[in-house]
Amino acid sequence: MRVVSINKPVSLDTITVTDALEPTPGRGEILVRWRASSLNYHDYLVANGSLAVEDGRIPMSDGAGDVIATGEGVSKWQVGDKVMSTFFPNWLEGQATKAKTRAVTGDTVNGCAVEKSCVSQDSLTAIPLNYSYAEAATLPCAALTAWRALIVEGRLQAGDTVLIEGSGGVSVFALQIAKAAGAYIYATTSSDHKAERLTQLGADKVINYKNDPKWGATINKLSDGGVDHVLDIGGHATLASSINAARVGGHISLIGVLGGFTAELMLPKMFSKQLRMTGISVGSADMQNAMVKAINTSGIRPVIDRSFGLEELGAAFRYQETGQHFGKIVIEY
């Protein structure tokens, strides 16, 4: 079977596909034939060496495929079931803890950039009805992050106002989830073409942040005092504007570091606005199951920008670097 591994010296140019023996599932495990994965910023940091991982680690947190064999004691799945990975394979339910989030798929434990692998029967969920493998593979990280930010932590209600930033995977999913829930959507982007696509997906007002560097204040004014929910993706580059855009008593989900790992806070503004700020790192299997149930009802479909083959993983990350994509980049194998 084909497998990708991260080996030293780590770089996007040294990503290669090699052959390995097919594993056999142990007690409580299932053998999955992975069919697709999708790129996340976390995967990019693993692949380029910014996040140090064990030599020989198999990358990619997202995966969708088929159950092709089951080990002794498996009761949750049968051969032929279509499944997808979980970002934290040991976080099944409840609040996050150090023990539950220690294992990270494609980081501290092997990921989905392999044709076949054995995983615990508990570390998977079903894929949505009538989804392709590529569509399902976009969900475990990006979609669940947006779901948790808005529905679980944000407690989104119909009629709420939401600000999404950019047009990457999490932002596009957040737009779709919020729109399906009956929210009014503000969005930011750097391109008129992407602004048009965001509008087509349901954004009610789109701001080009290159043309309006004070977009946070602009959105605060347009929304008559600020929005209820903000999904901040840029850290240092966006957080000050996100705070400006939020209403008094609003909720800011910190979900990305695209603009830097650190950020300065104007504490008096945080206090005076009485903001609630939550660091979001994906979610649990229970949350993922709830999201799938909602997708089956709402009919949300992922926006896939481009597909690559397993041997093209390095090229896929190079494309991700350009920032030209809208929605998700997938790998199919």
UniProtKB/TrEMBL annotation:
Keywords: Oxidoreductase. InterPro entries: ADH-like_C, ADH-like_N, ER, GroES-like_sf, NAD(P)-bd_dom_sf, Zinc_ADH-like. It comes from the Bacteria. Transmembrane segments: none annotated. The keyword Oxidoreductase applies. GO terms for molecular function: oxidoreductase activity. It comes from Zhongshania arctica. Residues 10-331 form the Enoyl reductase (ER) domain. Its EC number is 1.1.1.-. The lineage of its organism: Bacteria, Pseudomonadati, Pseudomonadota, Gammaproteobacteria, Cellvibrionales. Pfam families: ADH_N (PF08240), ADH_zinc_N (PF00107). This is NAD(P)-dependent alcohol dehydrogenase. It is an enzyme of class 1 (oxidoreductase). SMART domains: PKS_ER (SM00829).
